[in-house]
Write a structure and sequence with these properties.
Layout: H1 2-14, E1 19-31, E2 34-37, E3 48-51, E4 55-58, E5 64-66, H2 69-80, E6 85-86, E7 94-95, E8 98-109, E9 115-119
Antiparallel strand pairs: 1-2, 1-5, 1-8, 3-4, 6-7, 8-9
Helix pairs in contact: 1-2
Amino acid sequence: MLNFIFSEVARRHAEGSDVQYSCKCSYLEIYREQIIDLLEPSSTNLQVREDVNCGIYVERLSEHTVWTASDAFHVLWKGLHQRHVGATQMNERSSRSHAVFTLTLEATSTTAGGVTASRL
């Protein structure tokens, strides 16, 4: 999926599109009813908030700008290494939490003056 997204952005850029793209990644873990930023592990006990303009979001969750699929995979791997795991009889590195990796792709049109944001 990440390869497709960045290939499509590169293809549209090569076509001379008047749209500029920016991509940001965040990665959180829900462990023992607490939200932890996997990209900034010292940020714990984060809170879910709702805003009329922003919608639902996690307060103080870090976002890392990425330019390529390789950058996004690096962020993903960085977060994976921070996850809470433990041994079970069936799996020695069993996950003990739920995790959410979010890639936000923002497209800005230079001619229309509008901004469209999509979350994947």
